[in-house]
Design goal:
Layout (H helix, E strand, L loop, with lengths): L1 E11 L3 H11 L5 E4 L15 E3 L17 E3 L4 E6 L4 E6 L4 E4 L1 H15 L2 E3 L2 E8 L5 E8 L2 E12 L6 H5 L16 E10 L9 E6 L5 E7 L4 E9 L4 H14 L7 E11 L8 E2 L2 E3 L15 H21 L4 H4 L1 H24 L4 H10 L2 H10 L6 H9 L5 H21 L9 H19 L6
């Protein structure tokens, strides 16, 4: 047996980007459904660090007031970088409003917000294929629910299915500009445990970061409350996960504040540590959130960016359907808004990821320890920093032994600035993308040459 549904828009995935896209479309009176592989009880339960930067600014499709019940710690205001190789701790200011959330409760609340807006939900539904017409326009998806084949036909499909989305594997993009230069090595895995500790931690106002013994990973400790800690790690997919998970467990055992602690939840996931997709649209198709690389590649933070990407996608889809044209060209302005808001900044931040792959972990930690805290914060969150020659000289004076690394950081920073300037000139139409990409790739060649890193793309 099979069942068919028809909607104006079908969104795959009930994450942040998917829910905000659906809510945006539903509020304009269009028929929209979210197809979610998890059950209604499990939907919204995903692996996440629970840290939210930009907590003061959320799109109105699902107002902040509807999700504030998931904000469990709004007192965090800085990052705490533990660098055992240098026997030092850096207290780093973080710009913007911070919060730590209960991600599962947040997931429930954004689903509730999308439902209030008029979105229909189909749970326990696993997408298996994408449907395209003869000219390549995406016209729907095919899925299974409890063994039954279900067809979802739509004017536009929104891919919010997360990292390494199956929808992109199933779609023929040969007639589109959609970014297919996507590989396993551009993603990382994350694992986290929710840990209850017997006594309040002293650092409940900080996001704690610590390098693993390998350069490809880092540990985090984010306080949901004084006694509930999100403890996790992120690592490149080419690393052996169980060895890195053991790094986390070893560190937990060695931290006195975790003595007598209990673990209440364990979960893992994949996330992009790469620049945003060059183009995330095709005829009848838009990708949002993790499915389009909308994550800060240095911190893994992606909630606020996903909310805005979903909103921008929904707004452009509304215009396209209203005009009776869901072509790539009609959806293109979504790409421009993403690149203007955060995409160019994330591309600049990715340059520092590239640098880190070519630096010895001990040298990298020494470099971080030598940088002024506010400048490190600027680099981590804004993609650039006012790290001029005078400050280079002063930092070098105070950091004997890391002069080569500091000079290399300065050169890399200058190239990251050039790259962000180039993203500010993102093209206004699909036909101009190839020339823009060629110019961007020339800049990336310079970055690889300066850093000594292997090409990432």
């Amino acid at each position: 047996m099979s069942t068919s549904h028809e909607y104006d828009v079908v969104v795959v995935g009930a994450g942040t980007a998917g829910c905000y896209a659906a809510a945006t479309v539903a509020r304009e009176g269009l028929d929209v459904a979210i197809v979610e592989r998890k059950s209604a009880e499990e939907a919204g339960h995903i692996a996440c660090g629970d840290a939210l930067k930009g907590a003061d600014a959320f799109p109105e499709a699902i107002p902040k007031s509807q999700i504030e019940g998931a904000f469990t710690n709004t007192g965090v205001d800085h990052g705490r970088f533990e660098i055992p190789q240098e026997d030092t701790v850096l207290e780093i200011p973080v710009p913007g409003e911070l919060a730590v959330i209960d991600r599962w409760e947040y997931g429930r609340l954004i689903i509730e917000g999308a439902e209030r807006a008029g979105t229909e939900f189909h749970y326990d539904t696993v997408v298996q294929d994408v449907v395209q017409d003869d000219d390549g326009t995406v016209t729907g998806v095919r899925a299974k629910t409890n063994g039954e084949v279900v067809a979802f036909d739509a004017d536009v499909v929104v891919d919010g299915a997360g990292s390494l989305s199956i929808l992109q594997d199933k779609t023929d993009f040969s007639n589109a500009t959609f970014d297919t230069n996507v590989s396993y090595s551009q993603f990382c895995s994350a694992y986290r445990e929710i840990v209850e500790v017997p006594e309040p931690v002293e650092w409940d106002d900080a996001l704690v970061f610590k390098p693993t013994e390998r350069a490809a990973g880092y540990l985090w400790y984010f306080p949901r409350t004084e006694t509930t800690i999100n403890a996790g790690l992120g690592f490149q997919m080419n690393e052996e996960p169980m060895k890195l998970v053991e790094d986390l467990k070893r560190d937990l055992r060695n931290r006195p504040e975790f003595e007598g602690a209990t673990v209440t939840d364990k979960l893992g996931a994949a996330l992009p540590t790469r620049r945003p997709y060059d183009s995330a649209v095709a005829d009848g198709f838009v990708a949002v959130g993790d499915a389009a690389g909308h994550v800060n590649p240095t911190t893994g933070g992606g909630i606020a960016g996903a909310a805005y990407a979903g909103t921008y996608a929904g707004q452009q889809v509304i215009r396209a359907i209203g005009d009776g044209d869901v072509s790539e060209d009609a959806l293109w302005h979504y790409n421009e808004r993403v690149m203007d808001h955060f995409g160019g900044r994330y591309a600049g931040l990715d340059v520092y990821n590239v640098l880190s792959t070519a630096v010895d972990v001990d040298d990298l930690m020494g470099l971080l320890a030598s940088l002024p805290g506010e400048k490190l914060a600027e680099a981590l969150y804004s993609g650039t920093t006012s790290f001029g020659p005078a400050l280079v000289a002063k930092t070098a004076k105070d950091s004997f032994g890391y002069w080569g690394q500091i000079l290399n950081f300065y050169k890399t920073k200058s190239l990251a600035d050039e790259l962000m300037d180039h993203y500010a000139r993102y093209p206004g139409r699909p036909e101009a993308l190839e020339v823009w990409k060629d110019q961007r790739d020339d800049l990336m060649d310079d970055i690889y040459a300066v850093t000594g890193a292997d090409p990432k793309y």
